[in-house]
Amino acid sequence: MPVPASLQFRDGRLPVTAAFSIHVQGSTDRRLEEALRRMLRRLEGRTSLTLSREPAEPQKATLVLEVKGPGNALPTLGDDESYSLEVDGSRATLRATQTVGALRGIETMLQLLQGDRDGWYLPAVTISDRPRFPWRGLLIDVSRHWMPMDVLKRNLDGMAAVKLNVLHLHLTDDQGFRVESRRFPELHEQGSDGLYFTQEQVRELIAYAADRGIRVVPEFDMPGHVTSWLVSHPELASVMGPYSIQRKWGIFDPTLDPTRDQVYAFLDAFLGEMAQLFPDPWMHIGGDENTGNHWRLNPAIQSFMAQHRLADAHALQAYFDDRVAQLLQKHGKRMMGWDEILHPTLPRDAVVQTWRGPKALAESARQGYSGILSWGYYLDHMLPAGLHYTVDPLPADGKRMSEEANRWIPVSWYHRFQFKPPEVAIPEKNAVHVLGGEACMWSEFVDAETIDSRLWPRLTAVAERLWSPRNVTDVKDMYRRMARISVQLEEHGLMHERIGEVLLRRLAGSNEIGPLRALANLVEPVKFYDRPVQFQEATQGMPLTRLVDAARPESLEARALWSSVDDLLSDAPRFDRGAERLTRTFHQWREFHPELRQLLDNSPALHEARPLADALLLMAQTGLEALASLESGTTPRPGWREEALQRLNEAARPHGQVELATLQPLRELVLAAALQPEASALPAAAWQARVKAEALAAIPKPPEKKK
Amino acid sequence: MPVPASLQFRDGRLPVTAAFSIHVQGSTDRRLEEALRRMLRRLEGRTSLTLSREPAEPQKATLVLEVKGPGNALPTLGDDESYSLEVDGSRATLRATQTVGALRGIETMLQLLQGDRDGWYLPAVTISDRPRFPWRGLLIDVSRHWMPMDVLKRNLDGMAAVKLNVLHLHLTDDQGFRVESRRFPELHEQGSDGLYFTQEQVRELIAYAADRGIRVVPEFDMPGHVTSWLVSHPELASVMGPYSIQRKWGIFDPTLDPTRDQVYAFLDAFLGEMAQLFPDPWMHIGGDENTGNHWRLNPAIQSFMAQHRLADAHALQAYFDDRVAQLLQKHGKRMMGWDEILHPTLPRDAVVQTWRGPKALAESARQGYSGILSWGYYLDHMLPAGLHYTVDPLPADGKRMSEEANRWIPVSWYHRFQFKPPEVAIPEKNAVHVLGGEACMWSEFVDAETIDSRLWPRLTAVAERLWSPRNVTDVKDMYRRMARISVQLEEHGLMHERIGEVLLRRLAGSNEIGPLRALANLVEPVKFYDRPVQFQEATQGMPLTRLVDAARPESLEARALWSSVDDLLSDAPRFDRGAERLTRTFHQWREFHPELRQLLDNSPALHEARPLADALLLMAQTGLEALASLESGTTPRPGWREEALQRLNEAARPHGQVELATLQPLRELVLAAALQPEASALPAAAWQARVKAEALAAIPKPPEKKK
């Protein structure tokens, strides 16, 4: 994962034993040698074998590397990442044009390692691989919550394992200024609570990333999102200060004053310093979500706008962007920014990052600008991997993609959000402008302890979408492979698999958390922006140690339950397949309830989850009633359907920003019981489709918003 | 934990809510303020409450601190660590003479936090506390396996949580030279594979420890254990080089040449540099396990000995120690070393660290030397917490202590090691020379990933032994509290609770590890030095990712099983109590066996555990037979007892340096079935004692060693 561009399994296998050895022919460099050292250590960790570090003769080596040249020591957009891997019974041969291709091939080889009764081996295979898109990134917001070096390093390892190649660091925002400036030390001193990367650390991080074939693109968000800058530099603001670091979440008014030369002189010096520090040709200047409110409040800015015939805030921002673009050009950098920077005078070599959606991507491509897609890849929205996987920067068929994607909209958002087919398709001639995409991890509700579990394993789905051919779209197979890779990713110290239990033990104050783990495995954090909406008192200092933080973004147990219901319904009208599993599950929910309630009672931090435990009990009861009806072939009594659905609607309510992920399979069970009389009249598939459709129709509409 | 010197619970409770606030009166310093910040963050993490950082008025504060003075900024032997803590319905009052006492009291308060249906609270309590011993340490060997900064930092946090106050860093040994020397950079450059602490890191670590009231004592082991020094300085050796870093485990011959002035000139410069770097008054020079072989090989050394009338290697080492002691004195340091340094000319202010046992401790105390006990506290021996807990540096009754301690000797060592009552008791007048003790973590078989799980939670038992009054000896209660504290310790990032599952997932290559986890929970690594003896090919590069590394040093599940057997036997001749639990357990072992075998087959790294899985199945069968006999009141057929015990003896064999921890309760079950006819004739307790005695007698003797 990601699936290679071309792959054929063959008969045979290459045993991996303690005699595993490597021969490098052609070019080698320090990066390649260190990558091989890391590879050996990972092989050792998985196999428990002690492997030799001595280079082998070419004819005796288990792995032969043929690399033509080192390529750019610093990863660069458009590097040749292709490689081929040939495994037969006697050796594995990895060929690449450049070191970076060899790095990609090494990860593929590590994923191929398997074991059975006869020992470890690589299956015989012929792989020829290259990425679909050259820009495959991850944005980490280190401003809203601070992420120290080790968090970034282990995530760089994870990124390399799934062939991502850009780490986009969102370094500054209202809530924190996270990089040392030697030119203006007051920026990080007063804007960061002491939590920032020193320049030495930045260099260390860039080198660490480069060793793994990953670029580091810094973002300095402006002219909005700058409160943390204004703490020490209120003179740059549009409205008189003083300012202090913003502790809340949202979109705020503080903005640089784009009308004063002093601001550009400051930016010239600051961006000049950062241009030296960050070697990548692109520099991201944000440019998003400027409210314009502070510009309206300042008469001097208003008169400047009148004088320069700038009709509105958008025009003034365009003016600002143009001047910043000139500064970047002066310092040898190309501009990158969010959708909002797109306007007629934007330099041709700028890259537009799209948070608004396919339409914006198409528009920038139409205007000839390179663009990358981030809309649809917001991992902080707590959506299923299947949804992200279904979003394609260049879909073959926008309509079909939208239908597929809509299957993955969480139930609680069924009436609130649906994908629509893109209005503007991207014509083939513009496709070259779509460079790829970036998953985003905004950090309002993640910290150094929980970020891994919000990134992984779902990020692997985005990585595959951006690397593998367009026609690799089997979601079920993706989930199967994702589970396997997720465990492999732990070897980098990533905490996604383990942190949930750590938090549950902390919440329970005990090691005995069986029923609590069962509950946590069936719930999910609320989706999109529901967490701040439901919990408006959230601040930067709030501990992220609640059930919502322990719950995985996507409940695989709920998916398994749903799949059992599918089995049952597809077995109409016998209703045998899956029935035992479902009965056992519902019995378990009922049986652990008293112990669970006691656990929740004993920990005040878990009190908020008590209604969820009770809701689960109700679900168990409802499920068992439906199963009884289906198994006995008895139609439920009149009114039962409405009562049962009502019960489920009660159970659907979020508590503590957590919702049960088991709603829809339960609704389907209820409707299956209710629609049972028709099951013998219709073909199973048609009847099942009817049940599913009615179950969707049974999702209650959210109340109208008050105006 | 550790239990305070004096503690009375009272009626009432102090609610801990989001309004929790602090008032500090009297002295404060940066250390105290940072400790309070850390305390608030931990409170927040556990309670999920967001707490204020604003100081409160004294009458409104939830916690009032009264500290008389800051005390030594750098922790010093003999610091006043006492404190008192008074909690009533309106506030908690923590009083201490010095900041370091306040640090100890804060940990006690954090341990008191509880929750129930009504919320979080501190129980009303009156505590007056002070340590029993002033030297309560942990030795970490960073030489044999490298332990980076974050490992040491999180373990310093853990040490502070249980009131330990000395981190003893074993910095150099045959396998690695782990500290930067600016005077002789070739030492760390050639002796460490690049894995060493820079001087900046050392200072950072010392400051981190000092903030937590913990001293850092460095050890530079000499004249033996110096292979890593000799890589770059073969001219200091007793036998001509060249030398390379030792990769194996054991006791090796390379030794400094004590007869040449050049060696002392070098040590003068090197120790002088280290004396500047490490501020603690003591410097540990090891002095242990010098084979003397290389001294015998060198004629020049032999003639030096003749000339100076040094009768043997011990005498020559005494000469060496004396000269090193003079160097230490010159650099303002006191000497510390292992037992072997004890000889008549040892400076009076030296501290002797005992690895040989109570007799050696008594001897150094008799000679008026201060000593600390490490024998009995070797956590790398994989012994039960109960054993370490039972070892007391100053036992009230040596005989009774030995009996208690022998209950904790693992079955596999029953015939190989038993505690004997000390031959020499330490008279009261010498007791003052016993400063305390140090747990030891030698790192042949632990690395940065596994060390936490080999230290914790067992280290808490040693910490309590060294802090709490001598009469705190309830082992069962210690285990109860240890389980609770173990979970709290996770908040420092300690990995002891989570790493086992991480390794099992890696071994299985999957998230579905149910039966593997069940097996891992019933086994233990082999004890004392059995791991290297059974696995002689072990080297420094060997991956520590096998079942033996995932298994906890002490199986709590096996203890629980034993306790169920105790319940059953004490219920003779009804045999009802505990029977259902035991039956369920044995059925489980039988049921998961096929799935477990498949898991083990599929991962070659787990092949070595297949005999253990089969042994567990045999145990289940044996246990069920015994239960059937006891429940039906039927005496087993003739020969069954012998057959069953033989089966268990087969099951007792270690595989992959792992042994099943369930042997003895199973033997007891077998003997209970066999001795059933006598159960109605004897009082239950007497019959049970008989069963236990025969079960011990049934442990087979190990074969005689070949000569």
Provide structural commentary.
Two copies of one chain form a homodimer. Chain A has about 700 residues and is of the alpha/beta class. The first copy, chain A, is built from 27 helices and 18 strands. An eight-stranded parallel β-barrel of chain A has the order 8-9-11-12-13-14-15-16, surrounded by four helices. In chain A, α1 (about 30-45) runs parallel beside α2 (about 100-110), α3 runs parallel beside α5 and α21 (about 555-570) runs parallel beside α25 (about 665-675). The mean pLDDT of chain A is about 95.
Keywords, separated by commas or semicolons:
7-stranded mixed sheet; 8-stranded parallel barrel; homodimer; 707 residues; 27 helices; alpha/beta
Q: Sheet with the most strands of chain A?
A: 8 strands, parallel, barrel
Discrete helix count of chain A: 27
Oligomer state equals: homodimer
Question: pLDDT under 50 segments of chain A (min length 5)?
Answer: none
Distance between the termini of chain A: 47 Å
Biggest chain contact? A-B, 46 and 46 residues
Determine the structural class of chain A based on helices, strands and strand pairing. alpha/beta
Task: Round the mean pLDDT of chain A to the nearest integer and report it.
Answer: 95
